[in-house]
């Protein structure tokens, strides 16, 4: 039990629409600002309440803290190691195949509590005959079902984190210094648990907008009405309504994004070789029927220099004349 104080009274949080609209994969964290334990619990509570096929409840997570194990970033993909070193909290997500052993009992529980009814064909003995599912389904299907559940649970957790002012990002294990086997040993996982993602959690060092809403596949190529290939017509009046409600927000890249990225790069002590040295431009993949993939234009040395915010050292009043003389030379 934590001794942390729990907020009383009203707490300002974003609405569900605002939180979904503002959620970004945050990769820059304030390494010195700890995350309140109650907020982590809120994320886990939201994950626990996510939809789960047949009340499977296979989703599991292990919460770790960077300050307790500063080298835990060594288990993460080389594309995510800096992010992992900065984030105060790391949540390892997975699913436990052993949950299938008790799924029948949990479906019976849905019947006991009124979630399932006779009118929909539910019967105690019929459930007992069909479950556990490993009797009738191959492993590939069982893994797929559990993975789908896990995706929904993590999305719930990320939405709540955003609503509470936190940033999150999902990170993989490929290309890590240490192996997944070593990680499982470190976390003392049973063999039935399959780890899939590590989620960084913390207060963003970058803005919550993080450069703007990410480009996604065009709406008309993603959703259909009545049959495949017949687009669900996107009503621009609804788009404008959702903008007012916060679900649809400014698209990437925002004008200040490149300067934000490179200023953060220098602020944490990385050298010039790690600066983002290409020009940002609007997405080439958001218009229906268009996929434009061109190499970004490389910035000139002068252009790159303008993307980094630099602070001049303090000029003491006793040194003012000397400073001005040097500047004139």
Major sheet characteristics: 4 strands, antiparallel
What Rg, in angstroms, do the CA atoms define? 25 Å
Question: Which second-level CATH architecture of the domain at 10-207 applies?
Answer: 3-Layer(aba) Sandwich
Text of the CATH class of the domain at 10-207: Alpha Beta
Number of H- or I-type helical stretches: 11
Q: Give the strand order, joined by hyphens, for the main sheet.
A: 1-2-4-3
The CATH topology of the domain at 10-207 corresponds to: NADH Oxidase
Mean pLDDT: 94
Helix content: 25-40%
Question: What structural category characterises the helix and strand content?
Answer: alpha+beta
What proportion of the residues form beta strands (DSSP E)? 5-15%
Give unreliable regions as ranges. none
Taking the alpha carbons of the first and last residues, their distance comes to 65 Å
The CATH homologous superfamily of the domain at 10-207: NADH Oxidase
The ordered H/E elements are HHEHEHHHEHEHHHH
What spatial form do the alpha-carbon principal axes imply? globular
Number of strands: 4
Please describe what this structure looks like:
- The chain has a domain of 198 residues: NADH Oxidase (3-Layer(aba) Sandwich), CATH 3.40.109.10.
- It is built from 11 helices and 4 strands, in the order ααβαβαααβαβαααα.
- α1 packs across α6, α2 packs across α6 and α4 runs antiparallel to α5.
Report a brief summary of the structure.
Helix 1 (16-22) packs across helix 6 (139-163), helix 2 (37-48) crosses helix 6 and helix 4 packs antiparallel against helix 5. The mean pLDDT is 94. The chain is built from 11 helices and 4 strands.
């Amino acid at each position: 039990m934590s001794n942390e104080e729990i907020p009383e009274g009203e707490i300002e949080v974003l609405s569900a629409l605002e939180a979904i609209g503002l959620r970004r994969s945050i990769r820059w964290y304030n390494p010195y600002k700890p995350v309140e334990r109650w907020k982590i619990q809120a994320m886990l509570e939201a994950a626990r309440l996510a939809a789960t096929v047949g009340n499977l409840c296979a989703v599991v997570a292990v919460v770790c803290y960077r300050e307790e194990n500063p080298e835990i970033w060594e288990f993460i993909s080389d594309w995510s190691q800096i992010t992992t070193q900065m984030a105060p909290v790391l949540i390892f997500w997975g699913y436990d195949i052993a949950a299938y052993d008790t799924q029948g009992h949990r479906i019976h529980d849905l019947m006991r509590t009124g979630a399932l009814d006779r009118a929909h064909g539910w019967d105690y003995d019929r459930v007992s005959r069909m479950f556990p599912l490993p009797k009738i389904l191959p492993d590939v299907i069982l893994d797929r079902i559990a993975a789908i559940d896990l995706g929904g649970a993590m999305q719930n957790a990320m939405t709540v984190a955003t609503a509470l002012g936190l940033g999150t990002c999902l990170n993989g294990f490929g290309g890590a210094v240490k192996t997944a086997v070593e990680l499982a040993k470190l976390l003392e996982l049973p063999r039935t648990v399959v780890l899939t993602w590590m989620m960084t959690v913390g207060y963003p060092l970058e803005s919550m907008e993080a450069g703007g809403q990410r480009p996604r596949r065009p709406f008309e190529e993603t959703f259909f009405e009545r049959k495949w290939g017949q687009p669900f017509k996107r009503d621009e009046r609804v788009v404008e309504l959702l903008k007012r409600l916060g679900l649809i927000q400014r698209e990437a890249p925002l004008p200040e994004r490149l300067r934000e990225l490179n200023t953060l790069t220098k602020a944490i002590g990385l050298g010039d070789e790690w600066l983002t040295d290409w020009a940002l431009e609007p997405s080439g993949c958001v218009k229906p029927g268009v996929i434009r993939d061109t190499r970004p234009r490389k910035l000139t040395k002068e252009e790159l220099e303008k993307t980094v915010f630099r602070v001049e050292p303090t000029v003491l009043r006793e040194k003012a004349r000397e400073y001005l003389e040097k500047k004139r030379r």
